[in-house]
Amino acid sequence: MGLSTHVLDTMHGTPAAGMTVELHTTQGEQATLVKRFILNADGRNPDGMLYDHASLKTGTYRLVFDVAGYFKSRGVELPEPPFLNKVSLDFGVADATAHYHVPLLASPWSYSTYRGS
Prior knowledge:
Largest sheet: 5 strands, mixed
CATH architecture: Sandwich
Shape: globular
CATH topology: Immunoglobulin-like
Radius of gyration: 14 Å
Structural class: mainly beta
CATH class: Mainly Beta
Number of domains: 1
Number of helices: 1
Distance between the termini: 10 Å
Number of strands: 9
Helix content: under 10%
Low-confidence stretches: none
């Protein structure tokens, strides 16, 4: 099914519309930017899947979420430097025929993730 992400703003109880996200492929410590996008009103990539079923490959990936930039744009007063700036999630795809959904629940002070469905 491919790769997707979704971000929820747990401070405001809403999708994180407007958050900037980057997708990278990784190999060891080297990361290659695949795409940068801004989440839509539902907190998702406006173009749908990050990789469709045919394009997703076995390997390692990184999603980078601009948490501080998002909350600053919402008018939240953050300390300098912010406690969370960019949240980077490194994950592996072992079965490229499966669906990998990588959600993020975020506030200025905490985040949580899991492999969703």
